[in-house]
Amino acid sequence: MADLLDMAAEQEENRLQGLLATRQRPAPAYSISETHCVECGEEIPAARRVAVPGCEYCVECQGRREVRR
Questions:
Q1: In total, how many domains does the chain have?
Q2: Is the pTM of this model over 0.70?
């Protein structure tokens, strides 16, 4: 029979797994990136579009979005 620490550890693991499952998943590798940032309209460099498939924001706007979270 499991003791209280084992049960607490299992509950915590289940909670963490649930949180990870609800996180926004990255776009699949075959996703098409935007050519221009949907927030500011600046062109997204080709290197970023290749490195981050499905990107919609330039580096600056993406950085601001992540800080807001």
A1: 1
A2: no
